[in-house]
Amino acid sequence: MRGLDPPPEQVVITSRDYDEYLAALGLDEPALLRARVLDCPGGASDFARTVRERGGRAVSADPLYAGTPDEVAAAVGAALERGLGRAVAALRRGGAGWSAGLPEYVERRRRSALRFLADYARDRAAGGSDYVAAALPALPFPDGAFDLAVVPNLLFAYADLFDLDWHAAAVRELVRVAAEVRVHPLTGVDGLPYPRLGELRRALAATGVGTTVRAGTLVCRVRRSAPGPSTTAAPPRSGATGGGAGR
Ligand SMILES: C[S@@+](CC[C@H](N)C(=O)[O-])C[C@H]1O[C@@H](n2cnc3c(N)ncnc32)[C@H](O)[C@@H]1O
């Protein structure tokens, strides 16, 4: 993963937990557990581990996973410290809403990261492939390998690092490997809406990728009838995760 532009280190590593993923991405658990799921970027989240623990199938992808368990633990530990620092600074700036929730927020992220780190070490020791070192916009998976790709907190969050072409290439790559792609949030780290969303959606539509916005999440699929970037991408499977399955 060396030599990537921009370097992945410029992107914060976070550890949102399984319940946060479900709520943010509007996922219905029974449908989720039937699907083949890609979490990209997985970061230090326990989402995929929890999917597997509950009987589902999930793989995480992130450039972070090029590291050994010790290297990843050090990077995640440092990121958690910085994240706590930012939360405390927000509290000091007068974010009264934080005061009640801050200890719980910190504890949830810490628990999620610890579960991830234990699972990452287990996977590496077993020579497994639950955590794949990969960086958008190029993923090492065959066309249609997944029913659902969840993309939390990377696209749109770093508009200063990743330009419009990068975003379009990333979504095209994600719909190549997954029948349905859900990207959340549609805002930057400053909380402001991604300013080029309309332009991006038009560019994707022009290459056969249909998008809809549902409750702050961008849902993307290759259109069946239109010529897409990859003609071999699996068609969306009704009922796997989309349509009426979201909550
Ligand atoms: C804010 S974290 C999100 C982690 C997790 N999804 C969550 O919501 O807590 C962003 C992650 O993106 C990863 N990343 C950076 N560049 C990337 C790229 N080009 N492709 C995929 N992931 C990347 C970072 O290593 C980091 O773990």
From TrEMBL:
Species lineage: Bacteria, Bacillati, Actinomycetota, Actinomycetes, Pseudonocardiales
Region (Disordered): 224-247
InterPro entries: SAM-dependent_MTases_sf
Listed name of the protein: Methyltransferase type 11 domain-containing protein
Biased composition (Low complexity): 224-238
Organism from which the protein derives: Actinokineospora bangkokensis
